[in-house]
Amino acid sequence: MDRAPQAAAPAPREEWTGQVGFILSAIGSAVGLGNIWRFPGVAYENGGGAFLIPYLVALLTAGIPILFLDYAIGHRFRGAAPTAFRRLGGRLGRWMESLGWFQATIAFVIGLYYTVVIAWALSFFVFSFDLRWGDDPVAFFVGEYLQVGDPGFSFDFVPGVLIPLVIVWVLTIVVLAAGIAKGVQRTNVIVLPILIVAFIILVVRALFLDGAADGLNALFTPEWGALADPNVWIAAYSQIFFSLSIAFGIMITYASYRRRRSNLTSPGLVVAFSNSSFEILAGIGVFATLGFFAFQQGVAVDELESLTGVGLSFMTFPAIVSQMPGGPLFGCLFFGTLALAGFTSLVSVLQVVSAAIQEKFSITRRAAAFAVGGVSAVLSVLIFSTTTGLLALDVVDQWTNNIGIVASAILTSVLVIWVARKGGELRYHLNALSTFRVGSIWIVLVGVIGPVILGYMLVSRIISLITEGYEGMPPWYLVVFGWGAVAVLVVGAVVFTVLPWRRSPDDFVAWPAYPPSATEKSGAGSKEVRS
User: Fold this and answer.
1) Residue 239: beta bridge partners?
2) I want to staple 301 with a disulfide (CB 3.0 to 4.6 A). Which of 13, 218, 331, 380 is the partner?
3) CA gyration radius for the chain?
């Protein structure tokens, strides 16, 4: 009797070429749009220099511990988020897999609109050469460039957005299809040094502008009374949480491509502190520039508007560029770095989805890249390159980040530490391979402190969105694009969990063995750690 044909053995898992490649790629993921346009304004509005205290506390008690958790899960269970969580879950594998798909769906949704902001930055990079926005950058951005309409759904495409958006998607698909070492890593190795050098030049130039000192004083003068405000601490945890690329599959996926014997915690510290250093550097550059703008306007810095997000980047900064010596060069540097920072983060976001699809359906990385990239590009163009694209982006981003990602982090901590009871195993994995060892306090931070703080953030934000709405937009619009985005995350998690695997991920043995034998325990501390 003939035997049933056996599935071909899986190809060896892709790997980073070494520790440096992984670190640069992880930093490239963490350093994104939020570092440049979010941190400076958040710090300024929440105590100035005093904000650095809760910021550092949040980094040490939530950011780094959850980053280590992602590293441990991805590296030990050798897969994208759905694969890793399924293997981690044991008897609860199917339920845990759904958490992985929830994270992958979050990454998919973020990729749809994150790409559009990069397209805007590319457009404004070109506009900087002749200061095309003229004397009224706000009217230019909202009216002439985006042609913003009323809340709704439009098929009136904006060519100025559509063309660079298609270019960004083509570049992204090419990088994903090239793989981890030749695509993602090579992109970060090339782009990240250019980004850092260009941004340092931008910051140095800003420091020599008239009024720069006033801007820095506005940012760093501490308001110690702000430390008594719980909302300031929540803002600090929120900033750390969103800027480190944690809890929605990126670092799980990235860690899964590290070699079996790889130092995990020390590179994690390098990534975390590099990200925070770039945020502080961005704060210096942005507020030195805002100080110049206030000086030119004859007003105080606190009288300026649009100090964060889209308004800062595409309304306030063009106005500043128009008034400063060498404005076109400064504009090219700013929008160029914005596009580069966004692109390295975008690649990491979509790698989460591509890797998950590749493993679930046992297809090649190129097939996964073209499938994920193709579907994403079509949806991105249809939703965000039209006259209603800006409004849709604002709402989807608000709900996906403040509800989707925060809920994902809470579920990860609770399910991994308390339901699957994997805290001890993951701590052992980190310590068996790494030079910087974590103590039992790590489990407390990940399993107790993190969920409590994030739970408060989630509940308070949900209550605010339900009772107060958002930016004065119609309730039906918030239901469709806001709560609808959350529904997509949940439905996506369920659907992809139910679909059958082409090759079962359960035939897997985690390494090193846990619980360890007496010999392994005695030798764990002296193991050679190779990257």
Assistant:
1) none
2) 218
3) 23
